[in-house]
Amino acid sequence: MPWFKRADKGIQTPTEQKKETPDGLWYKCPNCKTVTSMAEHRKNLNTCVQCSHHDRIGSKEYFAILFDDNEFTELDENLTSGDPLSFVDSKPYPQRIASTQKSTGLKDAVRTAYGKVNSQNITIACMDFAFIGGSMGSVVGEKIARAIDHARKTRSPFLMISKSGGARMMEAGFSLMQMAKTSAKLALLSEEKLPYISLLTDPTTGGVTASYAMLGDFNIAEPGALIGFAGPRVIKETIGKDLPKGFQSAEFVLEHGFLDFIIDRKELKNRLSELLSMVLLPEDVTTASKTKKAAKAS
Ligand SMILES: [Zn+2]
């Protein structure tokens, strides 16, 4: 007689009674399943220590990675969305905005700021996927347009970090107008010979890909990022063919000529500085780095 006998087949414990490790202590990579402490994972800029899988992060983390000593001045901090269409889905749009602002601590899906990256002045706009899927509505468009104006006024380069599900449904046509507005502002930036670098992160899709994200003097991406316009299912149904492996990954998009290069997050800051030092006009190089160079030369 065995001392243990399984009376029922399979695991019977209901999900809510299963024991989980507490959140925030350990990190398990969704790609290679390596487990590391959360502290180690954060130190590695939220990329896997084993396979370098890049986790999604928000504007707070990107600003901390890029700006010297995490010092920056935020632009148009309090711009929030109206409700031009009196839109209601499962709840009215103003209510959705208010509850998302409360849960994320963000005002909308983009934050814009200026500061220094390795002593070089720069204006950065960074999207937050946590805010209604990083959707582009009128506030996102307006803040990006104003950030570009700020770059023009201060003659600083402009970096856009995109992370978006596309245009914001609740603002319909008003969202689509942001594509034209931001593109027109980028044309002015280009006329004034100021560099625009576009960083596409996971995911960059829809109207964002179709406007400012693909208009950079350099279009760069994080490894493994999903980059596309329409979703794979829609494309598959339209063309009636199976899609190739790795379709819409940053690596696939690079191979097909839509990206200039892929950059590991851990190298982002220094590679960005190198790039800017190659393309900036001498008069737009910040005094601080000029002084440093002068000191080195003497
Ligand atoms: Zn991994």
Automatic annotation (TrEMBL):
Cofactors that this protein relies on: Zn(2+)
Major site of localization recorded for this protein: cytoplasm
Residue stretches making up the CoA carboxyltransferase N-terminal domain: 25-294
Annotated spans, Disordered: 1-22
Domain of life assignment: Bacteria
C4-type zinc-finger residues: 29-51
Keywords attached to this entry: ATP-binding, Cytoplasm, Fatty acid biosynthesis, Fatty acid metabolism, Lipid biosynthesis, Lipid metabolism, Metal-binding, Nucleotide-binding, Transferase, Zinc, Zinc-finger
Record EC number: 2.1.3.15
Amino-acid positions noted as binding Zn(2+) in the UniProt annotation, renumbered to this chain: C29, C32, C48, C51
Cofactor note: Binds 1 zinc ion per subunit.
GO biological process, any: malonyl-CoA biosynthetic process
Pathway involvement of the protein, from the record: Lipid metabolism; malonyl-CoA biosynthesis; malonyl-CoA from acetyl-CoA: step 1/1
Coiled-coil regions listed in the entry: none
Alphabetical list of Gene3D superfamilies matching this protein: 2-enoyl-CoA Hydratase, Chain A, domain 1 (3.90.226.10)
EC top class, as a word: transferase
Reaction catalyzed: N(6)-carboxybiotinyl-L-lysyl-[protein] + acetyl-CoA = N(6)-biotinyl-L-lysyl-[protein] + malonyl-CoA
InterPro entries listed in its UniProt record: AcCoA_carboxyl_beta (IPR034733), Acetyl_CoA_COase_Trfase_b_su (IPR000438), ClpP/crotonase-like_dom_sf (IPR029045), COA_CT_N (IPR011762)
The keyword ATP-binding is annotated on this UniProt entry: yes
CC annotations in GO: acetyl-CoA carboxylase complex
Role description: Component of the acetyl coenzyme A carboxylase (ACC) complex. Biotin carboxylase (BC) catalyzes the carboxylation of biotin on its carrier protein (BCCP) and then the CO(2) group is transferred by the transcarboxylase to acetyl-CoA to form malonyl-CoA.
Family: Belongs to the AccD/PCCB family.
Family matches, as HAMAP family: AcetylCoA_CT_beta
Description of how the protein assembles with itself and partners: Acetyl-CoA carboxylase is a heterohexamer composed of biotin carboxyl carrier protein (AccB), biotin carboxylase (AccC) and two subunits each of ACCase subunit alpha (AccA) and ACCase subunit beta (AccD).
Protein known as: Acetyl-coenzyme A carboxylase carboxyl transferase subunit beta
Species for this entry: Pontibacter korlensis
Gene that specifies this protein: accD
